[in-house]
Amino acid sequence: MNSNNEAIVTVEAVAKHFKSGDTLVRAVDGVSVKLPKGKLIAIKGASGSGKTTLLNMIGALDKPSEGTIVVDGTRVSEMHGGEEVSYRRKKVGFVFQSYSLIPNLTALENVMLPMEITGVEPNGRKDRARLLLQRVRIDDGQQARRPTRLSGGEQQRVAIARALANDPPIILADEPTGNLDSKTSKRIVELLYSLTQEGKTVIVATHSADIAARADMVLEMTDGKVTDTSSFERPKR
């Protein structure tokens, strides 16, 4: 990967500390990194290494104790209240290990919901939701089902479609293949990678060797620090 790739995320001297009893836990400890636009980026590390905390701070689900985070020109670390809400609705889409779909809504309704919140008119959001679900290979019959009637892989594909609902430039995924078998995991990895072909930046906190093998950039985290950064030139397909 060329060093002149435009950074969409800049993390400067970021730390996240919290108290656990009398102990100060350094969940993220002085991380500085630039993440390139339009790439698949894997943040790897053992449980407790800080990868999910870093991902959550990039997504404005958590705030750093110290340092600065700039995402697509927005100083995320300095936002408050309504600014954070607007940022999460427009700039980032979230994909979680547990899928986090609303159980009493159909797959189609789950994908429509973010657009309803941002004020997309009803016909427009239904048409877009259908297209997004088709994009992730959820057919019309599956679109009418509630999450409990879908497999884990199908639920995760619905969650990815939902993350794309408001066309954010960045997708943040926390262990998106953690609950899936190896064959389904590989399909999800390929789906996430394919989003970069459309210009999306996909940042994944993961244990998965498959995701790391497909990534354009891999950050290794240990005890809250980035201990290694590797970048690769992947052939575009």
Describe the secondary-structure layout.
Elements: E1 7-20, E2 23-36, E3 40-44, H1 51-58, E4 66-71, E5 74-75, H2 82-90, E6 92-96, H3 107-117, H4 122-135, H5 140-143, H6 152-163, E7 170-174, H7 182-196, E8 201-206, H8 209-214, E9 217-222, E10 225-231
Parallel strand pairs: 3-8, 3-9, 6-7, 7-8
Antiparallel strand pairs: 1-2, 1-4, 4-5, 9-10
Helix pairs in contact: 3-4, 3-6, 4-6, 6-7
Describe the structure in your own words.
- It is built from 8 helices and 10 strands.
- Helices cover 33% and strands 30% of the residues.
- The protein is of the alpha/beta class.
- 43% of the residues are buried.
Order of helices and strands: EEEHEEHEHHHHEHEHEE
Which percent band covers the strand fraction? 25-35%
What's the Cα radius of gyration? Answer: 18 Å
Strand runs, count: 10
Low-confidence stretches: none
Biggest β-sheet: strands ordered side by side in the sheet: 6-7-8-3-9-10
Number of helices: 8
Main beta-sheet strand count, sense and barrel state: 6 strands, mixed
Overall mean pLDDT: 92
Q: Quick recap of the structure?
A:
This protein is of the alpha/beta class and 237 residues long. It has helices spanning 51-58, 82-90, 107-117, 122-135, 140-143, 152-163, 182-196, 209-214; strands at residues 7-20, 23-36, 40-44, 66-71, 74-75, 92-96, 170-174, 201-206, 217-222, 225-231. It is globular and about 50 Å long.
Features:
8 helices, 237 residues, 30% strand, 6-stranded mixed β-sheet, 33% helix, alpha/beta, 10 strands, globular, 4-stranded antiparallel β-sheet
